[in-house]
Each structure stands twice: as C-alpha cells, then as structure tokens.
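Q: My labmate handed me this sequence with no annotations at all. I'd like to see what the chain might look like in three dimensions before we decide whether it's worth expressing. Could you predict it?
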Amino acid sequence: MNRINSNISSLIFCMFVFLSTTNSFGQDKSNNLMTTTKEHIIKSSFNSKLYQLYVSLPKDYSIGDTIHYPVLYVLDGKYSFTSFHSIREVLDLGKEIKDVIIVAIDDDSQADAEWFAGRYNDFTPSSIPQSDTLWSKIMNIPDGKLKSGGAELFLSTLQNDIITFIDKHYKTSADRGISGHSLGGLFAGYCLVKKPVLFKRYGINSPSFWWNNNEMLSIESSFSTQSKSISANVFFSAGALEGGIMIDPMTTFTNTLKNREYKGLTMISQIFDGETHLSVVPACHSRTLKVLYGQNVK
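A: Here is what I predict for the chain of 298 residues:
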C-alpha cells in the first residue's frame, strides 16, 4: 500500500511539474518571446553591406535595473538564431548557463545563393580566385558574384559598427564571445589570432581551417611573434563523420596553440560521434553555450 501511495504521489508531482512547465511555455509563446527577441538592420561603414541582427535577451532583462550582461555574437544568424535562442531557453529551465545576450548576425540577403556569397566573402581571410570559381560552380552562382577575402573588413564592421550598436542600445558588459560554424568557425579562429582582445570566449565549430592551404597556421605563427598571451576560453568541435579534411587542420591548429603555451588561454575540444558537417550544428550550439557560459565557468 505504501508503495502504491508513493507511486501516486510521484505521478501527481510529475503532473504538477508538467502543467507548471506547460503554463510557462504558454506565457513565453504569447508574450515573453516577443519581449526577449529583437531585430535590427545596420549598414557597415567598411564594406557598405546591410546586416541583419537578431537579439535574444535573458528572460529577466529589464531596462529598469543596473544589471549588465555578457554578449555572445553568433555568425550565420539566418540559421543559427532560432537554434541558439531555443537551446538557451531550455538550459534556462535548469539554470545551467549564465544569463547572456545572444546577437546573431547575417547579411540582409534572403536567397540561399546570396546568403552563401555574403558569408563566403565575410568569413574568408584571403582572396583566392580559383576557389571563387570552384565554389561558384558547386553552389550554382554566376561567375563574378562570389568573391573571397573580406574577413578584415567584416572584422572592422563587427568591432566598430555591430558591437558599438549593441553596446549603445543594450545593457552589455565587456565580456564578449563569438561563435561560428564551418566558414564561420574559420572567421572565429581568425578573430582569435588576429584581434584576441575583442572577445573573451570563442566557439570554433567545424572550422574551415583548410582554407588557402591551412592559412590559419601562418596567421597564428605571425601572431605568436608579437604576443605570448591570449586571455580567452575557447571551445573547438567537429563531427566525427566530417573526415580528415575538416578535423585534421583543426587538430593541427589546436596542437599548435597548446605548444605555444599562451598565457591565459583555456581550450576544450570535442569530436561528436556519428555527426556530419550539418547534423553536428545543434550539438555544437548546445555545447558552446555550456562550455562558454556554464554556471561554473568564469
């Protein structure tokens, strides 16, 4: 009889939790989602492109207090924003991560071909005409529309236009992070060794470090002659099914960083079993938030 009563009590408790959670989700759907997400369009002062910003605010964000929040800048906002926003809301249920403002960035293009052309230009650190021609054929993009080598201008846009705008309109702290996947991961790695003081946290996921014959190694080598410290918390990841073309350059890069023994640099790497270059995206988004903003992370 006691066992039956215990089971009944457990069932009632679970139903109570479920109903409470359902009510919370209902409130989020009707009003909280509207108040915790914002959109903006800004024009770059450096490449004259328009950028769409999607902002996800902590659920308790208020203009009526003095709390300031860290900011995570996420690349490829067209596809990544809903993922990061939803994962953050789930993790918030268990208070598994700290409160953070998430800003997803994309150019103002809607068509997939234009979206790819925009990110291809923004995230690549050097101009490779042969690569432009090859990827134009692969993505069925007219010749001349795909141009690599815009990373320096996009980094300037990010620092001077986008971050400045977000800092002006939201209650931000100086604790900034950046996360990217694929070519976005390449750009996040580029930021790490090109201007490491801009961000303190990095999610470098399935990075295209194969770009221009592993050019990132040369960029890092040049940086190492100027500085012996990188004050950053970095998460590297890839899917196990991505193969050597993606994993090997990333491993070489992380080993190089370890061998440099940069002061202040903390790194965690993970290979997700059974995941491809695309299927790994939700996993790396979730893990990026946990590694960079987990409650026990400084």
